[in-house]
């Protein structure tokens, strides 16, 4: 490891520590804003350090830089515009949309990495498969949740005939395509199959849930994205992604439980209740 | 970066335990901002998205890298800004803040 890389690894560690402290500060109304700013500063340091790492390694092509800068510009502009212009009452659905793109990014980067890597190990394909699965479920699930809150999709539980059978089929596709992905080291068709099946599952998971339960569902999907990001960390071998992803996955799960408790609902009731009533109502 | 599996799993398990512990008794009014804050933190995926642009090749590779980077930056930038706006509302109403904190 070069000196530059070592320094950057320590900066990543500092960023990870600041995420933990920032999240802890957000437990109390007095310190919440400071906690968020600390976490944002840590993120800025992490992104800056990554840019320096890419420059220092010099492995990236000119086209790669153009793609990176264009993506950063488009993403930042869209995020900033939406976050600033949104009505106060529409914030939960916007958070859901940001959660969707985070999950999407985690899934896409696994596809890209496994597609381009010269040699692919089992220790990359298994978390890679999980990353694509969880990331794509979160992507479509969060979009549907945002649509329900915004009123673009009816807020009532939407049930259709054969939803349970469809979910069983999708489950089999998950297992089959992940096995294919592992055996045939990074097969593109297997990854696309997994991506499509997971996207469909995200929709069939959230549609049967009523609009009033959406905040809890968004929080659950938020925890899912954290897990997907941790899996992306396993695929790329990046510690900082594993730490931050695991942190959000676990704290998101606790938060989901707190939110469900506050509404006097149980998480299983919210998620599986929708499935259970699906077949009976049909 | 080469990272051995045992180290990676160790880091993951410890990260999960920290995540469970870091959320304690949160007043209900802070649930949504906290969710939004955690949402911004998983925007760390942007670092992974930036790193894969170095290995990207061919149209599909660059397309995937572009989408991943754009998605990641939207998550990070939008996430932190919207969380800050939410928390700003708490400052505007100190009376409500005190009531919910106790």
UniProtKB/TrEMBL annotation, chain B:
The chain crosses the membrane at residues 6-24, 36-56, 62-83. This is proton-translocating NAD(P)(+) transhydrogenase. It is found in: Cell inner membrane. It is an enzyme of class 7 (translocase). It is a multi-pass membrane protein. Residues 9-91 form the NAD(P) transhydrogenase alpha subunit C-terminal domain. Its EC number is 7.1.1.1. The keyword Transmembrane helix applies. One of its GO terms (molecular function) is proton-translocating NAD(P)+ transhydrogenase activity. InterPro entries: NADP_transhyd_a_C (IPR024605). The keyword NAD applies. The transhydrogenation between NADH and NADP is coupled to respiration and ATP hydrolysis and functions as a proton pump across the membrane. Keywords: Cell inner membrane, Cell membrane, Membrane, NAD, NADP, Translocase, Transmembrane, Transmembrane helix. It comes from the Bacteria. Pfam families: PNTB_4TM (PF12769). One of its GO terms (biological process) is NADPH regeneration.
């Amino acid at each position: 490891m070069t000196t530059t890389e070592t320094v950057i690894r320590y900066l990543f560690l500092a960023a990870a520590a600041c995420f933990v402290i920032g999240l802890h500060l957000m437990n109390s109304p007095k310190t919440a804003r400071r906690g968020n700013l600390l976490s944002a500063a840590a993120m800025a340091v992490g992104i800056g350090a990554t840019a320096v790492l890419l420059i220092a390694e010099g492995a990236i092509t000119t086209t790669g830089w153009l793609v990176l800068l264009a993506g950063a510009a488009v993403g930042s502009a869209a995020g900033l515009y939406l976050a600033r212009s949104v009505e106060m009452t529409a914030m939960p659905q916007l958070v859901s949309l940001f959660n969707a793109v985070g999950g999407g990014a985690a899934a896409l980067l696994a596809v890209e990495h496994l597609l381009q890597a010269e040699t692919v190990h089992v220790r990359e394909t298994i978390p890679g498969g999980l990353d694509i699965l969880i990331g794509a479920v979160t992507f479509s699930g969060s979009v549907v949740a945002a649509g329900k809150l915004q009123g673009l999709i009816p807020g009532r539980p939407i049930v259709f005939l054969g939803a349970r059978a469809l979910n069983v089929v999708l489950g089999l596709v998950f297992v089959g395509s992940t096995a294919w992905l592992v055996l045939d080291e990074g097969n593109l068709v297997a990854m696309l199959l997994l991506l499509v099946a997971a996207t469909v599952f995200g929709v069939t998971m959230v549609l049967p849930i009523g609009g009033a339960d959406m905040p809890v569902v968004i929080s659950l999907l938020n925890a899912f994205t954290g897990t997907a990001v941790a899996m992306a960390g396993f695929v790329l071998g990046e510690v900082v992604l594993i730490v931050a992803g695991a942190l959000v996955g676990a704290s998101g799960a606790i938060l989901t439980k707190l939110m469900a408790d506050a509404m006097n609902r149980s998480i299983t009731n919210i998620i599986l209740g929708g499935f259970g009533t699906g077949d009976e109502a049909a | 970066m080469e990272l051995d599996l045992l180290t990676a799993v160790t880091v993951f398990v410890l990260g999960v335990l920290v995540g469970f512990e870091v959320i304690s008794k949160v007043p209900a009014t802070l649930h949504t901002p906290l969710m939004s804050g955690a949402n911004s933190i998983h925007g760390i995926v942007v670092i992974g998205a930036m790193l894969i642009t170095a290995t990207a090749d061919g149209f599909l590779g660059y397309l995937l890298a572009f989408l991943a980077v754009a998605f990641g930056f939207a998550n990070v930038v939008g996430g932190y800004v919207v969380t800050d706006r939410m928390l700003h509302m708490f400052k505007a109403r100190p009376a409500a803040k005190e009531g919910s904190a106790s």
